[in-house]
């Protein structure tokens, strides 16, 4: 077959693959290449497809250079063919594994894993998408101890948790199985492996200690410290071939590496005061501060990291001429003083994967700078000049020797001239190199002095912040039930450290910049306390929210609108007896929470350095809350007095809580908190039925406290840079048209005024009403500075997009400016926001567009009423998710929902002395309007497990 691959056609190879000949299609040649290797290397996709369709093929075989067949080609068709075949094989094999485990068919399972391809590709730790359980969970639940041992020996993770957060030992019923699992956990915690090489700790092929890829392999989610602004964020980590890499999410692990550390040059540190914390410290400034959900997870990672580092060290001692390490693969000069020279032999693992990872690391992460003082002894100025002088002296000696050669051994004139010219050119090149080195030395000296001056400024800012933070901590310790973010407003002098690096990239390592440990810890405590509190508040929430409802929302029976309308003219909507069929399965408090769907806009606003740009992004957030009202003509369930609702999104880093504080008139109060902002909102709905339409006027003001990661106002207030900015804005009126006949339409109209009370800047955004000849859903407005100068103009549609143009840049040109109303989404080249026009007018920017959705209900709205089983113990009885009428309605039980709703509506009213539990009435210091201020007691009691018991 090997010969036929290179010289014969398709029909001949197909004939040779006939099962009657019983040829071994995985037989390697003298170079370790199988027929599949040769077909991929020869770029023959038809032959590769033919081989992959054979049930006996093993595409995971390695040749003598450690390459698989997929690594031998750059042909996209061949790569796609192999990957698709692998996916189908893994899917089919996983189904068989699950079936054999359920049937306790131990013999069939063992026979299945005799296949080398199965051992290399199929992960025994694959979780069921519905229950989150693994094969080890199922075996433990069925009580088969032999099967449990067999799975553990082949890499089954004894620390894997299902959707309920349970370990295999938690679901085991047999005492023998529990004993086996307990012993396995003890051995792993002690740093021992379970007898066989596992996919969780060691890749297969343990027979050869120098085999390519023979390193511990581990992947999973850890919390990584990003910077002082965002704190910890979840990232996907992969330990493979002695390199620890991290990615923003598991889905980006194929093509978007955010950073990597070679463990050969790294050390591991475990926090003795916090068993869920550990650091991976690489050379230079490379440092990953990591946190796991529990101590067992830390032990598992530290064990794998230590074992991987040990394997790398053993490889250096035993085989100095082995294949180059990942340091060469990652674009780092392997001839640096800290690394012995290695040969040019092939690297381990997948060439295609490693090169892709290397390119992303080199462009996205700066952790591979090996020029720090820890790694290299930089020469002094005297040593540098001595080296330059010795180069010239050596050149002079060679020139003198050549002159001596000319005298003693005469050569022809042409050769002598050529040699002398060559020496002159060498002298010229040496002088040029020295000149360039001197210029670079001068450049870096200037840059160093500039950085030192800037560091002095930062140090002073940090010292001022330390004093403020000490005051904050003393107040916080004395008032544990007080809102942490509210305490910030009482600190007299507030300053903000400049953000270092992008939000999604590496944090600035202040320790290497000369800052004291006390200053760093004091600054970290502020954001870490809040980040940890928000993370604790997410207990019980799923890692991924649902994407579909249990039944289609609008598959409900029709109802005659006229029977409702004829006696309800000019009545308040809350006093009308609406049929249950006209509702949607959400409480008004949950509908109120939809304003946080585009919360990332506030994070973007906090990252802007210019105050008018921050106001612009806050305006976009205020407008985005109306994007979900399109075609939403159904009525949410009326909230009950004292009803509450909480929502925590750990990916976006915020927690939200609301309460119905009054029913006459109906007033809802909410509070949302993140590291970057704090949002207070009140909502009082006043609605009138007009026959053909319904007018809904939403009264109440939104109050935003935006925390600035940089001293953005330092230019105008150099002595006191502000730490937070205060914003407020009103709401506009919503009108629902054509209730009796015609297509139902939702219209938002009115003026929304957004004010920055800190800088006295304002934004006017007009929601234009429908006209016969005009466009629908149009918004337009402008941002004005404190001196009433217009800095930005805006145009868009509240249900589609918004574009803006900076007036300063557009007025500098003498050309006629195209109105913003003439731009459409198709004019912008990118689907991402923000983006600019690359051709017509670069000053025009698309700042926001609505996320695409397949139905009227977006995935965010579907998550609002989701009730995972693990969340129920954390919720109070007053939470909207626990209302039976809404739950019945979502499940399609309309009659039960109607009866339950009537029962709730007929409950007796509370006494006159009733007061909201989580909010208190207060006055805003800027607008002097009434606000309902959050006490923060809710999250305090929830995080301490006292919430449900006290409701």
Describe this structure in words.
The protein is 36% helix and 18% strand. By secondary structure, it is α+β, with helices and mostly antiparallel strands. The longest helix has 66 residues, at 413-478. The protein is globular and about 115 Å long. The chain is built from 28 helices and 26 strands. Strand 10 and strand 11 form a beta hairpin. Among the domains are: 2-189, Ankyrin repeat-containing domain (Serine Threonine Protein Phosphatase 5, Tetratricopeptide repeat, Alpha Horseshoe); 218-336 and 348-364, PH-domain like (Roll). The strands form four sheets. A seven-stranded antiparallel beta sheet has the order 4-3-2-1-7-6-5. It starts with a helix and ends with a helix. One of its GO terms (cellular component) is cytosol. Residues 334-350, 359-371 have a biased composition (Low complexity). Keywords: ANK repeat, Lipid transport, Lipid-binding, Phosphoprotein, Transport. ANK repeats lie at residues 31-53, 131-163.
